[in-house]
Amino acid sequence: FTLWRRPPLRGQENIMRLSTLAFLAVPPVLRRKKSFVPLRALSPSLMDPIVRHPALSALSVDIRPRSRLKERHGRLFDGQTADTALFDALAAVACSTGVVCRKELFETYAAATFIHAKFPHVRRIADLAAGHGLLAWFLLVLDDAADAPGRPRTVVCVDRRMPPAAEAIAAAMAGRWPELAPRWSYVQADLDAAVPDPTCLLVSVHACGPL
Q1: What is the CB-side half-sphere exposure of residue 10 using CA atoms within 13 A?
Q2: 195, 2 contact by CB (below 8 A)
Q3: Which of 4, 8, 36, 45 is deepest in the core (most CB within 10 A)?
Q4: Could you give the CA distance from residue 140 to residue 143 in angstroms, rounded to a whole number?
């Protein structure tokens, strides 16, 4: 993904060229590989940590889907089982920020899990229409937990404006996983200015509306 290498500051303009956007744009290099397992075959076991999580029933009674999780909700994600330990750690950090909606936590984890399972060896990812950037952080944590050999994954968020929620999430995630902070960046720019490298995977959870 062709971007200014130094981490951009809010308000700085970044000049990039035109690109075609999609929900999940697969790099040409990756399309040639045949070793990936279909998502429908992966879905049952991948979603177990969230579809069977005891916090689901408690949260459905306590708050609405679009209501924000609070720090007190973090106690519902205690990481007592190995199957949910990573999700619980991510959820607890998300709860501590006070800016993540209930539905966003679960849908973002589901998207990140699918993407990572489908493209585990992708080293560069661009999260388009990134908003608060939660997807990018989840993808970084999943890669770090996998402890894959070779170059570590980096993720860049791209959106017209970096909202305060993105700063809150970045601060919380970097506090929990400080080694991942240098691998995350946020670029404020229009999406039609993006120029992906052939090896860069383009992803988005909310690529909707005119996109």
Answers
A1: 6
A2: yes
A3: 8
A4: 5
